[in-house]
Amino acid sequence: MSRRDDRRRRIEEAFAEFQRAVSAALGSVAREHRALAVEHAKDMFEFTVRGMGVDKALQDVALAGVTRFLTVDEKRTRNPRQAPLSMPEFAERLAQIRHDWQQSYHEWTTSGPDQVTALVNSVAAGPASWPHESWLGQPGTHDGSEGVPELWRIGTGVVTSAPEHQPFPVAVPLLDQAHLHIASTPDSRQIADTLVESLLLRVLSHFQPGLVHVHVWDIGQLTGSLPGLYPLTRANLLTVHDPARLHELLDELSEHIRQIHTKVLVDGHLTVRSVSGEGRRTEPWRIAVLFGNRKALKEEHQQQLQRVARNGLACGVQLFIVDIPITVNSPVETVSLRGDGTAMCTMTGKDVRVTLDPPLPRTLVPRACAAIAEKREERRTRMAKFGDLLPERLWTENSAAGVIAPVGFDDGEQVCVQLGDTSPHALIGGPSGSGKTNFLYAMLGSLCARYSPDELELYLLDFKEGVSFAQFAPGRKDPSWLPHARLVGVNVNTDREFGVALLRFLADEMRRRADAAKQHEVTKLEHLRAEDPGGRWPRIVAVIDEFQYLFGERDQVTAAATQLLEDVARRGRSQGIHLVLSSQDVSGIEGFWGKSAIFEQFTVRIALPKARRVLAEPQNDAAVELPRWHAVINHESGVKPGNEICRIPDSTSKGTMDFLQAQLWQRERGRAPGLFDGSKIPLLDALPDFSDLQPGDSSPTVLLGQVIDVAGSAARVRFARTPGRNIAVVGSVVQDAAAVLAGAAASLGRQHEPHEASFTLASLVDEAMPSALHLAKRLRADGHDAEVIGINRIREVLDRTAAQLQQIGTGQADAPLAPHYLVLYGVDAAQTLLEQKDPATRASGVDSLRTVLKHGPENRTHVLGWWRGVQRLKASLPPGVYDDIGAWVAFDVQGKELLSLGPEQVMAWSPRPRRGLFFDRFEHSRPQVIIPFDTGEA
């Protein structure tokens, strides 16, 4: 051997020893030795760059290993005389490094093992490092709030080159820290199985059952891997995947990572661990164990596995990769197994021998897994209570970015409904008896407990004889109300117009907020609240139960509702307005034919047992076999990967939502919500519009009934001194007509001083006399002159009044007259009598009526009359001239009969009990549906 070859050999041996020393120092967990070893590596790196001029590739080689560095560098150097081995500076630098390392290595051999032991004990307490006798068979109790072990024990190590072989525990980082790669030999495959089993049992036994889910895939076996863990399958904690379907497992993990990024890692969070913070773990870990055959996977599987490994740790996805060659750009701890039961880790070198912990007792492993499964099933089947949905402190949340409502539990963990900019509206489906009302109570109670009325307003509407929301408004038995509720609609039945009114109100509010946002140069509610902190901009949640009835017919109501709903659904998200629509079956909504764009805005889908067409059918049939008291919560427009199945607690029984409402009402009563009860007739004296009427207006307002709108306002007619200011009521039912006439006359009487105006009440049909007498009594109590006459005097009154008006017209009398109101019940009953002509003047009573109708309003004389049919009304008017009746209310009259009296929209009118169609030709472009008042008549 030449002298040059001998020198090269000695230098190579020196560098090999140096590599082992640095690797041993790196293998010690003590931070100071790691830092020293890294510093040595940096020195070597700087030396090679400065003294040898190597390129980037050779720099990487130098850090990877001395032997490979020397070999590659020697081959790449064109001029042997310039090779690093021929440079004396190289040997000097090496000697200095060896001296520094020997000094630090001596310190490690004397104190390192004790330091490692102390470190493992401090960061790997409990099942993470303790002997199995102290934890195996006892389900874990930790929920992540007390921290997560950083290391998990696998065995005992010794430094073979140390004078005394002092043992120390060897542990590997897992879960949020690093993936685990195990490489075995044909003789050590069984050892790999026991190592994986031990680590999984340690993790499963540390945390509450349900916080860790395990997936197993073995390329060579269907069900042979880890048989001791199989009791976990009945609690869905272990899933064994088909060896031919690796892509399905990788797809499932990839989809889970995507959902974590879109739903959990928000507000700047980078990991699930940072979201949890010091609190309970919000998302369970998923450990995927992949057993290979020491051959590379298919290229597409390899790439997808690398993506899962690269992104999984931040999302709680942990890989145990056994005998699969893979290189990933992610933290990975590698354990290389030997046939004698020992191992070599990437953190240890040849100087450290790791003796793996013995396998767990075969008989105890299935029992321990069964205990974990039973505990988890116990948590799953535990009857969660309504109070568990509520926060410890009321009204502490801020709704600027959206609202979150826990509605149920899955494995003891809360499942929430979120409404915000990314998930603006919700669609709930479930047949009768599936628990829609219970779900709505759970959601509303959860929202109201978290957000104050300044943060959240509710508009609640229940179609089809529903009374689900009645308790949220004050009633006779319970005077309390839900402070967040601004409007409650119950027993809506056929009053589909009220649904349109609610949508129109939301559209107007949306535009008001958009204008305010424009003034502050922002586009969304969250930014508007930041720019205008003094303003009141709560989130609005509008819940419409059985909303399909709003679109039940092909008419103008459906057209208007569809247009408004599309507008609110599309633009309401940015202004903090959210819709929650509930239905037994959305398949019958005719109004949405060809309007799929509306449903695309409802990204939150809630399916109750046996619900149809709420989720993305037919791929997602999760609701078909759903048990009672459960729901599928899906924030991904109903696609299957977005399913969250949870149990909904009882929220309707005594002591649940009613108790919470009483608490909130005592805390802040505020203004009671508006109540629309379709089964009740509005009381005239309780109407704010009636109470606000005062004497003194020269053009008094006539109130005819309540308009079906959000404000519960009255239908109005102004009795100005202009032609046509008369009112006709058309219909055959005296109760409806008498209610309108009584409300109109009472509202007029309220606007006149005592004895200022006179009222003539003419009962021309016998069944109207009680109503006329009751109205006269009321008017007289207010100090007005009210005369009740029968059919025998109607001609006299009309002729006298007509004569007075004619005298004013010819200048024979002073104008105007004192206010005079003729309230005529059943005008058509006197038609024959009125048609008779006076022999002297050849004038009839009909002529007098027409004179009063034509000239009376200009002289403060107005007619409020009831005709029992449209043709009968026309008989009282000049042929083809209807302008003298400026306003009318029709009850049991078909729309086509009214076409001559009003616009084309009257054609869509179909009569229904206690509802009238009101039209003022001087004020309206289309008619309105009104409800006649209850004037207190027995």
From TrEMBL:
Domain named FtsK: residues: 412-617
SUPFAM superfamilies for this protein: P-loop containing nucleoside triphosphate hydrolases
Residue numbers binding ATP: 430-437
Superkingdom as given in the UniProt entry: Bacteria
CDD domains: TrwB_TraG_TraD_VirD4
Alphabetic keyword roster: ATP-binding, Nucleotide-binding
Pfam families in the cross-refs: FtsK_SpoIIIE
Record-level Gene Ontology MF annotations: ATP binding; DNA binding
Keyword field contains Ribonucleoprotein: no
PANTHER family referenced in this protein's UniProt entry, alphabetically: DNA TRANSLOCASE FTSK, SPORULATION PROTEIN RELATED
Descriptive protein name: FtsK/SpoIIIE family protein
Native source species: Lentzea xinjiangensis
Taxonomic lineage: Bacteria, Bacillati, Actinomycetota, Actinomycetes, Pseudonocardiales
